[in-house]
Amino acid sequence: MRSWIEKQRSILDYTLASLLRRKGKNFSLLFVYMLVVFILASAMFFTSAMKREASLILQGSPEMVVQRLLMGRYDPIPLDYLKTIRNIRGVISADARLWGYYFDPTVGANYTFMVPHNQPLSLQNIIVGSGIVRSRKVGKGDIMSFRAPDGKVRSFTITGEISASSELISADLILISDTDFRNLFGLNGSYATDLVVAVRNQQELSTIARKITELLPDTRPIIRAEMVRTYDSVFDWRGGMVIVLLLMALLAFVIFASEKASGLSAEERREIGILKAIGWETSDVIAVKTYEGALVSFFSFAGGVLLAYGHIFFSAALLFAPALKGWSVLYPNFRITPFIDPYQVAILFFLTVVPYTVATIIPSWRAAIIDPDSVMRS
Amino acid sequence: MISLTNVCKGFNLGKLNAFTAVDGVSLSLEGNRITVLKGPSGSGKTTLLSLIGCMARPTSGRITLHKNLLGKNSFLASGDKPDVEITSLPERFLTEIRRLAFGFIFQQFNLVKGITVIENVLLPSYPLGKKHAEVRKRAGELLDTFGLRARARAKVEWLSGGEAQRVAIARAMMNDPPVIIADEPTAHLDSKLSREFMDIIALLKNSGKTTIIASHDPLVFDAQVVDRVIAVRDGRIDEEGT
Amino acid sequence: MINIMPQKKTGEGGLSVRKSTIALILLAGGVLLIGLMFVHAALQRQADAEEIAQLTAVVKNLELTDLCLFTEARYTRHLSQADMFSAFQDHPTALEHFPTGSIAGPPENIRRLNEKLD
Fold first, then answer.
1. Which of A39, A23, A27 lies closest to A244 in space, CA to CA?
2. What number is the ipTM of this complex?
3. Residues of A with CB below 8 A from B95's CB?
4. Are residues A323 and A184 in the same domain?
5. Which residue of C31, C33, C61, C65 to mutate against A (max A Cβ within 10 Å)?
6. Cβ contacts (< 8 Å) between A229 and chain C: which residues?
7. Of A323, B120, B174, C91, which residue is least crowded by CB atoms under 10 Å?
8. CA of B104, closest CA in chain C: separation in Å?
């Protein structure tokens, strides 16, 4: 056993000496490889953490939202519907929800106006999200004006800011009173944006949703599980950007694994011949190549994963931000909670380290079985 | 010590370009002697050398080694008979024999480029799994012996011809093999370095080594220290002299 | 006897630290750092638990349905409340107008509905 370890360490010594001969080539290889792992790991960390965080946060969402569809789009829903829904067995409560979008031409941002059901505001007062505070450079006590459909400008006093710690869900929110909302958007008093329904038994949610569509055929109930699932699919590994990154990374990987697998140079073959002639076994030669592949891919993997961790959880996905922001003016500042899954890291490990190592070993296998007397014959 | 009985070696058998490199050679080589296989290029002396050095197997015939060559610890030397038949052994055992019994000095020396002198000298010891401190001490001693200590950490491509030659000899000596095999060792050396090489070989003989050299260089086969010259031509032994 | 006599000893001559020792230390360092990464993640999750609970409370209080991640278009601001076809207003497989559309694919139920169209 001791002698086996000593032998492996000696072979490792040779492997390193051999790798360090082509410092430039091998370090650039390491760098490219690390970059591939970094991109993949970043995408993986980001999507899985966002998915997990979304599903936790959205546990607080309404159990069911009922929209009304008109000509394939959602439309204000008549408050009369509330009565019908409240009469369904198993429904505890049904209430109107008022929210809508406002495009602010001065900064080019979209705001979400919302009437808080549980904390009524007095007239002419608004509470704004921290994204708006930032982009409009306003604060408590300032006045914000918005143009109503009748062309008149309405002014509101900011009486509070929503805590910056909840920016991920509230950056663009403007909380407003029921009356002001209806005046600002010109929404008739007998309509709401949508309805929020609470039920007695979670198990009955889909049954009740079906009953609602039967009783009110122009409505579309959205249950909480669907909202969570929406974010599951947004941050799915098949999601737009992720798949592009994945394909790019795989392409880069294939190119360079095939470069590896395409064979050894004449110089490398000669070296293997020398080693065999002076008493190295085929398995020793293969061990050199195995260590070579394993070392390069392990360090690339470790470096890439660690950089990706820093990138996503310390710099809040700095490199992804431009794609995430798109053309948005309001973008929440938030730190991502590191929900990382050892299983995913393990998968990434096997997807990167194993194929590369194998691609390194296979061509050397053929070279390692050459006759030792080839050195004499050349 | 080493004996060959009616050994033949053919290449590309059954094809149009088939040829016989070694044709029915019977030979017995003594221990602690310097033997030179002399002959023009293409005479089959290199092939004969690689058969003796267990790098290739003969097509027919028998090669036996005295088990003293293999050292006490070898599994192959554990039998009752004094000689070990090597022609029928699997590759794994031939590798072990190469490691234990032979030190090779190749034409052009075949040092591994890009790594240092001491790393080259250490190479044959790696598969043995001996303690690192031990093998390093041994390599250091060899470098001292051959006056290479100061060059230990130099890359081999920076060496002069004479230095490269001594590194090759040091590497061949690393596992302290009883037999040194050298293939055209002076082919790329000037006369001064060739004589120097023969002087080193003489020293090795004094320390009890057996040396087998293939060469067509008169500086080698006419040297005083050579005990036996075997002329090879067309794969056969032509004449023998001492 | 020619110049094979031992020359003066200059320096140690050997390898000062074995390359394999350095490699094994680096290897252990890599494994350690990855281990620490998981430890850090676990601690950070614990530390963030309260904050996430607060977010959940805000969501509950304001009856919110979505994360405020993409504010550029109305159907990306409220992904789960989007119109049945809003993510694909022109054609189910049309290229997205808004950059975030490339990240936020249409919700599953919309994808299912549109399958037959193409």
1. A39
2. 0.90
3. 276, 279-281, 372
4. no
5. C65
6. 107-108
7. C91
8. 19
Chain B nearest C-alpha distance from A15 (Å): 11
Q: Which fold has domain B2-241?
A: Rossmann fold (3.40.50)
Which of A105, A109, A104 lies closest to A331 in space, CA to CA? A109
Residue A336 lies in a domain: yes
- In chain C, residues with a C-beta closer than 8 Å to the C-beta of A345 are 34
pLDDT at residue B202 in the model: 92
If you ran DSSP here, which 8-state letter would residue C105 be given? Answer: P
The residues near A259 (Cβ < 8 Å, ≥ 6 apart) are none
A211 and A275 both lie in a single domain: no
> Is B98 in contact with A7 (Cβ distance < 8 A)?
no
The answer to whether the beta carbons of residues B126 and C20 sit under 8 Å apart is: no
Q: Do residue A213 and residue A324 come from a single domain? A: no
Tell me the torsion sign for CA atoms B234, B235, B240, B241: positive
Q: Taking CB atoms and an 8 Å limit, are A284 and B126 in contact across chains? A: yes
Tokens of A146: 């918005």
SS3 assignment, position A125? strand
Least confident of A19-23, A48-52, A322-326: A322-326
Does any CB of chain A come closer than 8 Å to the CB of residue B183? yes
Per-residue pLDDT of chain B (242 residues; tens, 9 = 90+): 889 999 999 888 888 888 888 888 998 998 889 999 998 888 888 899 999 998 888 999 999 988 788 776 677 767 777 788 888 888 888 888 888 899 999 988 889 999 999 999 999 999 988 899 999 999 999 999 898 999 999 999 999 888 999 999 999 999 999 999 999 988 888 899 899 999 999 999 999 999 999 999 998 888 888 999 999 988 888 877 66
Shared domain for A218 and A95, answered yes or no, is: yes
Among A179, A201, A224, residue at a domain's last position:
A224
| Measured distance CA(A251)–CA(A274) in Å, rounded | 36
CB atoms within 10 A of CB A315: 13
Same-domain status, A218 and A100: yes
Q: Is residue A230 included in any domain, yes or no?
A: no
Q: Which domain holds residue A305?
A: 2-58+235-377
CB-defined contacts B:C, below 8 A: 46
- The minimal CB distance from A373 to the residues B50, B107, B130 is found for B50
